[in-house]
Every structure is written in structure tokens, then in C-alpha cells.
């Protein structure tokens, strides 16, 4: 069962089709309006699981399975 909270907001931007100028504007706005909240610890990524680089295949397998919620990290 998944829970969604009315106060939660999820936003994303597909940048692939945007011009370099538009991408620069988006990056500038994120740096100005979003990054300070990340730096202050108000916004934190959800880390599902971490793998050493030697187990990259396991991390990729987990990602392909879509059985995770959050980030899959690789570390040296």
C-alpha cells in the first residue's frame, strides 16, 4: 500500500528537448529556489540501497526490476 500526502508536491522537468538557453534558465532557477533547501537539509533524497562499484550489476538489476522506491547508490 502506498500513501500520498496532500501536502506533497513532486515536480520534474524533461530537459532533453529544451534549448541550451532554456536549460540554463531552469538550472539557474533550481540553484536559486531549490538548492538552498537541499543544502539546509529540508529536502533529502530517499536512498533505497547502496552498492559498492564491484556490485554494479546487482544495482542495475535492482533498478531494472522497478521494485525500489528511492535512489540506488554506487560507491567506491
Automatic annotation (TrEMBL):
<keyword id="KW-0560">Oxidoreductase</keyword>
<keyword id="KW-0521">NADP</keyword>
<dbReference type="GO" id="GO:0070402">
    <property type="term" value="F:NADPH binding"/>
</dbReference>
<protein>
    <recommendedName>
        <fullName>Quinone oxidoreductase PIG3</fullName>
    </recommendedName>
</protein>
<dbReference type="GO" id="GO:0016651">
    <property type="term" value="F:oxidoreductase activity, acting on NAD(P)H"/>
</dbReference>
<dbReference type="Pfam" id="PF13602">
    <property type="entry name" value="ADH_zinc_N_2"/>
</dbReference>
Amino acid at each position: 500500500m502506498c500513501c500520498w500526502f496532500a501536502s506533497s508536491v513532486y515536480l520534474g522537468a524533461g530537459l532533453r528537448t529544451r534549448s541550451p538557453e532554456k536549460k540554463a534558465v531552469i538550472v539557474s532557477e533550481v540553484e536559486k529556489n531549490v538548492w538552498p533547501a537541499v543544502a539546509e537539509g529540508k529536502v533529502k533524497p530517499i536512498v533505497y540501497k547502496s552498492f559498492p562499484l564491484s556490485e554494479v550489476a546487482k544495482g542495475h538489476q535492482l533498478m531494472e526490476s522497478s521494485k525500489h522506491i528511492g535512489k540506488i547508490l554506487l560507491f567506491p
